[in-house]
Amino acid sequence: MPAIPSPSRKALEKLARERILILDGAMGTQIQGLGLGEDDFVGHGSGHACRHHSDHPQKGNNDLLILTQPEAIEEIHFKYAMAGADIVETNTFSATTIAQADYGMESAVHDLNVEGARIVRRALDRATAIDGKPRFVAGAVGPTNRTASISPDVNNPGFRAVTFEDLRKAYSQQVNGLIEGGADVILIETIFDTLNAKAAIFACMEAFERTGIALPMMISGTITDASGRTLTGQTPTAFWHSVKHSRPFTIGLNCALGAEAMRPHMAEIASVADTFTCAYPNAGLPNAFGQYDEGPEDTAKQVGEFAREGIVNVVGGCCGTTPDHIRAIAAAVAGVPPRVVH
Ligand SMILES: [Zn+2]
């Protein structure tokens, strides 16, 4: 029996035909602003002690804060919701066994995804209690730190650090956790290798078949160089053709070089895709210190142009963006008609 579309898919498609929807902004910048140390990351002192053990240092393992600093993470989600986000992402970009292996925290993956979705739901329910607006939890699925298509070893081009099957298993565990925690959407993001994304899509399809309910998928690639290709060499059009069989709710781009560099590639996707489109650029290019200089008004002005050009249905922010960026973006696209899907 094929899975039936979830109520969230119908609700999102209806809203997306009425107006441009708003996605949230970066977690990293907000987490950095908390100035947390190793003790905070593992939950000693002020936090919640983590029941999962690892011998590795955990500072920088942002996803772990779901379990050790849940109040702080909920507050960030709440700020984005109140800034105007209709769709808010879980803090689970690296919550797979493959990515958590760097921190020896593979055992925490199930809890991270279940709790990660629950925390967003709590934050969004608080916001909705204030203004009555419906909001949606997007379970964030990152690319992992390994690529299935190319070799990391220049002397051994046939070598792969990860297989499709490794990725499928890891993503299955993540997606099942996100669904258990109440995700309304699965957002597969920052895709630099479409083969990794296809493993995530496959894991979603299996999960939807198991539950009988197909959540909407948002699929977002990243263009990492000026030639306009993904890391594994695909053009935006090729990227769309590689994933369109999954009938995603949105296709689009995030992260990378900022809004200005993203614009022509987003326009290309909008011209070929027969589904809604989503763009959430970084706050410009990172400077020499890896920080982002673009203020809320700068990013919002450019994203507002995407809207007036008619190339977007969902917009938000990636690295370096803040609740103020999202508030400015929401204001910049308010009243601009959404892209028409043909
Ligand atoms: Zn980013």
Automatic annotation (TrEMBL):
Pathway: Amino-acid biosynthesis; L-methionine biosynthesis via de novo pathway; L-methionine from L-homocysteine (MetH route): step 1/1
Catalytic activity: (6S)-5-methyl-5,6,7,8-tetrahydrofolate + L-homocysteine = (6S)-5,6,7,8-tetrahydrofolate + L-methionine
One BP annotation, GO: methylation
InterPro entries per UniProt: HCY_dom, HCY_dom_sf, Met_Synthase/Corrinoid
EC number: 2.1.1.13
GO cellular component, one term: cytosol
Keywords, in A-Z order: Amino-acid biosynthesis, Cobalamin, Cobalt, Metal-binding, Methionine biosynthesis, Methyltransferase, S-adenosyl-L-methionine, Transferase, Zinc
SUPFAM superfamilies (UniProt xref): Homocysteine S-methyltransferase
GO molecular-function terms, A-Z: cobalamin binding; metal ion binding; methionine synthase activity
Cofactor: Zn(2+); methylcob(III)alamin
Position of the signal peptide: none
Hcy-binding domain span: 9-333
Positions with a binding annotation for Zn(2+): C255, C318, C319
Gene3D superfamilies: Homocysteine-binding-like domain
Domain of life: Bacteria
Family: Belongs to the vitamin-B12 dependent methionine synthase family.
Role description: Catalyzes the transfer of a methyl group from methyl-cobalamin to homocysteine, yielding enzyme-bound cob(I)alamin and methionine. Subsequently, remethylates the cofactor using methyltetrahydrofolate.
PANTHER family hit by this protein: METHIONINE SYNTHASE
Protein name: Methionine synthase
Natural source organism: Devosia soli
